[in-house]
Amino acid sequence: MKTIVRSFASLALMTFTLTAFGQNQTATVDSLKKSLNSLTADVDALKNLKIGGWIQAQYQWTETKGAKTFDGGDFLANSNNRFMIRRGRIKFTYTKGIGQYVLQVNATERGVNVVDFYAKVTDPWTKSFSLTAGIMNRPYGFEIQQSSQDRETPERARFTQVLLPNERDLGAMITFQPVKGKKLYGLKVDAGLYNGTGIAVPGTTSLNGAGVVDFDSYKDFIGRAHYKKSWKEDKVILGLGVSHYNGGVVYQSNKVYSTLATDSMGVVAWQLSDTTNTTFKGGKAPRIYYGGDIQFSVKSKLGTTSIRGEYITGTQSGTIDENKSPSSLPTKPDAVVRNFNGGYAYLIQRIGKTKHELALKYEWYDPNTKVSGADLVGTNGMTKAELKYTMLGVGYNYYMTDNVKFMVYYNMVTNENAKALTGYTTDLKDDVLTFRVQYRF
Question: Does domain 48-440 have CATH number 3.40.50.300?
Answer without folding.
Answer: no
